Amino acid sequence: MSTNKRSGTRPSAVIRALSYLFARKVFQGWNRRLLKLALYLNGYDQFGAVATTGEGYFVQLLSRFGVRTCVDVGANFGEYSRLLLDNTSADVIAFEPLPQAFRVLREVEAKFPGRYTPINMGVGDRSGQLDLYFGPGNLELASFSQEVNNIGYVARRNVDSISASVTTLDDYFFSGDTSSIGSIDLIKIDTEGYEYEVLVGASKTLARFKPKFVQVEFNWHQLFKGQSMYSISGLLPGYKLYQMLPYNAGMVERDPKSPEASIYHFSNFVFVRFDVAKLLPG
Fold first, then answer.
1. Euclidean distance between CA atoms 150 and 252, whole angstroms
2. Total tally of structural domains belonging to the chain
3. What is the bridge-based pairing of β-strands 239-244 and 267-273?
4. HSE-up of residue 163 (Cα within 13 Å, Cβ side)
5. Model's pTM, two decimal places?
6. Once rounded to an integer, what is the mean pLDDT over residues 207-225?
7. Which of 3, 84, 175, 277 could form a disulfide with 240 if both were Cys (CB 3.0 to 4.6 A apart)?
8. What's the pLDDT score for residue 22?
C-alpha cells in the first residue's frame, strides 16, 4: 500500500473505501461536476461581473488602505479602471494598446478629469513594437502571445493582428515626464498570458515604489507559456500571495510552491507586501 507522499501517512480507511466506490467509470460525470464546483469555490473559473469574481471586495479593501496611485495594465474598455475611480480616491494610469478600446478610455478620462491617464500602448519586458492578436468581437482576449493560440476558443476568435507600440513600466515610470510620481500602491495586470513579461519589465519600478498590491490574472494561458504561480512569485520577493474568492467572500492566502496555486483555470491573484499583509482582515 502506497503512502501519502505529502504527509508520509497512508490514506484513511474511509478515503480508501470512497475511492474504491466513486472512482468507477459510472461516477466520473459526477466527479467532474464536483471537481468543477470545488475549483469554483476555491477561486478558480472566476470571470464576469466584479460581484462574482471577488474584485469588488478587493477594491473596497484598497479604499481602506488609502491608495493614491493605481496602474491598470491591460485596461481594455476601462471597467476595472472605473471601479477604482468610483470606489477609491486614487489616480489611475491605464495602458491599453488596442485603438478601439482606447477610444473608450478617452471617455473615462473626460469623466474623471485630472484623475485618469490613459496610455495607448501595450506593456511588456522591452519597449518597441509587437504584433497584437485580437478578434473584432472579443477585444478582451487580445494578446501579444502567440502561444495562447493553443487554447481553442482564443485561436478561433483572435483572427486579426496589428503592430502595437509597447513600453515597459520601468521605461515609462523612469522617464522625465513621470518623475513627479511619488508612489504606486497597486499594479493590476490583465494581459492574457503576458503577465510575466510585464513584471520582468517592471523590476526597477517594483524596487523603487514597492507597491502595496500587485494583482495578476492566472489562466490556461500560462500553461502554454511554461509559467506557474511559483515562477511569477519569484519576480515578487517580499510579497505574500492571496487568491480572490467568488461573490466577494474575501481572499485566502496561497503558497506559490503548492501545486494548488498553479491550477490553470481563470483566477485572480493578489501579491500583498509583507507589512501590508499583516493588516489584512482575518
1. 30
2. 1
3. antiparallel
4. 3
5. 0.92
6. 95
7. 277
8. 87
193 in any annotated domain? yes
Within 8 A by CB and 6+ apart from 122, the residues are 95, 97, 130, 132, 144, 164, 165, 166, 167, 191
State CA 264 to chain mean position distance: 12
CA 151 to mean position of chain CA atoms: 18
pLDDT digit string, tens, across residues 234-279: 999 999 999 999 999 999 999 999 999 999 999 999 999 999 999 9
For the stretch 27-36, pLDDT in tens is 999 999 999 9
Rounded Cα distance, 261 and 240, in Å: 12
Q: Which structural domain, as residue segments, surrounds residue 256?
A: 21-277
Which secondary structure element, helix H or strand E, spans residue 52, and what is its range?
helix 50-53
Rg of the chain, C-alpha, whole Å: 20
In a domain, 261, yes or no: yes
140-168 residue pLDDT tens: 888 998 888 888 888 788 888 899 999 99
User: Grid cell 515562477 — which residue?
Assistant: 231
What are the start-end ranges of the E strands in the chain?
Answer: 69-73, 91-95, 116-119, 122-123, 128-135, 138-143, 160-167, 186-189, 213-218, 239-244, 251-254, 267-273
